[in-house]
Amino acid sequence: MPDGKRPGAQAVAMRISGDKAAFHNCRFLGFQDTLCDDRGRHFFKDCYIQGTVDFIFGNGKSLYLNNRINSVANGMGVITAHAREDEGDDTGFAFVHCNITGTGDTFLGRAWRDRARVVFAYTYMGSLIDSQGWSDAMHSERDKTVYYGEYKCMGPGSSSTGRVKYAKMLSDEEAKPFLGMTFIRGTKWLLPPPKL
Description:
This protein is mostly beta strands and 196 residues long. It has one helix and 16 strands.
């Protein structure tokens, strides 16, 4: 954890800006801004991602499958800050079969940019998840432009009671584009992980 006294003490643990990159069984450890999923299509499987605020951020189009997401927030935490600004941008984060654990009063995401797009599906959400689920980062005009979806999630933090009005509890049809490799067109480029 940065001591909060030195300027520039906070650092990104990983930044990916290339297209068609896959990460298997990796650990991304940081505090604020842990993983910069900057741009391009990416696949994260069986990874561990830890941080406090905006610890998965950027304008990538990524599928996070079976990852453990751990908040170490002491106070308010935010998992995602997606940077989609234009409705025509084909970007977003899809978290499928993930497990959210940790501490703090943690939001699934905040509206860092006007058209942030994040979906959580089949994900276990611990009691650390704030009942509102999502934050517009004090930009109420973004309530009409962000795309925040949840689909068949479980755990004490997954209750739709108290969720912000602009969060979507997705139907089967609405969730389908986010649930598999087609989201990142992975069948055209994704290779199996290497055997070490």
